[in-house]
Design brief:
With 396 residues, the chain is α/β, with parallel strands linked by helices. Helix content is 42%, strand content 16%. It has a domain of 250 residues: NAD(P)-binding Rossmann-like Domain (Rossmann fold). The strands form four sheets. It has a seven-stranded parallel beta sheet, with helices on both faces. The protein has a two-stranded antiparallel ribbon with strand order 1-2. A two-stranded antiparallel ribbon has the order 7-8.
């Protein structure tokens, strides 16, 4: 099959196995070029196939030498349909981990379900014994509650009033005004149910009760705060309310785990190109402006650089983990430097369809978006016939 990108809005409906594999290898190469980390030994990553979750798994395995279990919901190729990018990413990771002599296992299914939690616990007990790091990096638009059976759907909306600001179609560079109506109370409730901390709490509770969470274990989940430009639609909107719930969960979990010397954190990470972020109005344009400024300053980071810094300097840096006044780890610190934000704000005020490619790194944003799905990756021949059916070793 000759696989080309097919898009529908902010979604790419195809993925390229060789391109995804090369993107995974690039991250592995970066980590292996850095100093090793004296970190975790057995790691569970919930939401492990893309973005920060995948990068966390790569750092755990190839910088810390850890055994890993990845839980994710991705689909294999079927007929004329390619597998999802996460499937190809995970296949490449599992192959590389096996070649490096790491224990590594994949569980594919709904992380919100009791069934997948039980299956994961059985695998930990059988193959690893106990887990000393749990990374919670689930990004899903929907969640079916395992107890009530209710299905919740999240929305990306402001709270309290209509919001209007600049946005961009990153496929064609058109800058326009986006207007978003405020969320209803029920939409807010459902978004918190999907993206808040309840499922994270359930995972830790069940791991503890099953006796497969090591004494002194660490758990971390990921969040974002961002600049004033995006606050109305992000931090002060429905997603922000869900992240507040996630952060409250971290405080409860920290109290819960501290009795055995354990820790729970939320890490606030940098704005990056992900399928999730591309769906949020205003955010792709902000990221494009941010990328240009940070690249010019020589401080731009992608997922793998962020996660290596989180693990090596914060979680396993040898001293007390540095947090802000709210107890949050801040690896968005370079993004949020006042001089960076001032320059981005200056660019933002000037952005239009006519100058967006000149003043921002929209082309870099667009390229990174397609690279998420294995396209626009150097040295890959996209006119060549390729087999879309890729098996994942150690799939359980």
């Amino acid at each position: 099959m000759i696989i080309q990108p097919k898009t529908r809005g902010f979604i790419c409906t195809t993925a390229h196995p060789e391109g995804c594999a090369q993107q995974v290898q690039r991250q592995i190469d970066y980590v292996q070029a850095q100093p090793a980390i004296a970190g975790p030994r057995n790691v569970l990553v919930i939401g492990a196939s893309t973005g920060y979750g995948l990068a966390s798994r790569i750092v755990s395995s190839f910088a810390a030498g850890a055994n890993t279990i990845g839980v994710y919901f991705d689909k294999a190729a079927e007929g004329a349909r390619t597998a999802s990018a996460g499937w190809y990413n995970s296949a490449a990771f599992e192959e590389a981990a096996a070649a490096a002599g790491r224990k590594s296992y994949s569980i594919v299914g709904d992380a919100f379900s009791d069934e997948i939690k039980a299956k994961t616990i059985d695998l930990i007990r059988t193959e690893l014994g106990k887990i000393d790091l749990v990374v919670y990096s689930v990004a899903s638009p929907r969640r079916t509650h395992p107890k009530s059976g209710e299905t919740f759907s999240s929305v990306i909306k402001p709270l309290g009033g209509t919001y209007t600001n600049k946005t961009v179609n990153f496929h064609n560079g058109e800058v326009s005004q986006a207007t978003i109506e405020p969320a209803t109370e029920d939409e807010l409730r459902q978004t918190i149910a999907v993206m808040g901390g309840e499922d994270w709490q359930m995972w830790i509770d069940e791991l503890q009760q099953a006796g497969v969470l090591a004494e002194g274990a660490t758990t971390v989940a990921y969040s974002y705060i961002g600049p004033e430009i995006t606050h109305a639609v992000y931090r002060e909107g429905t997603i922000g309310a869900a992240k507040n719930d996630l952060e409250a969960t971290a405080r409860r979990l920290n109290d819960q785990l501290s009795a055995d010397g354990g820790r729970a954190f939320v890490s606030v990470n940098k704005a990056l190109v992900t399928q999730s972020s591309s769906a949020i109005p205003v955010v792709p344009l902000y990221i494009s402006a941010l990328y240009k400024v940070m690249k010019e300053k020589g401080i731009h980071e992608g997922c793998i650089e962020q996660m290596y810094r989180l693990f090596s300097e914060r979680l396993y840096g040898g001293g007390e983990t540095l947090v802000d006044e709210k107890g949050l780890i801040r690896v968005d610190d370079w993004e949020m430097r006042p001089e960076i934000q001032a320059e981005v704000a200056d660019v933002w005020a000037k952005l239009s369809t006519e100058n967006v490619y000149e003043l921002s790194d929209l082309e870099g944003y667009r390229r990174e978006f397609f690279q998420l799905f294995g396209f626009e990756t150097d040295s890959i021949d996209y006119e060549a016939d390729v087999n879309p059916e890729v098996n994942i070793v150690n799939l359980r």
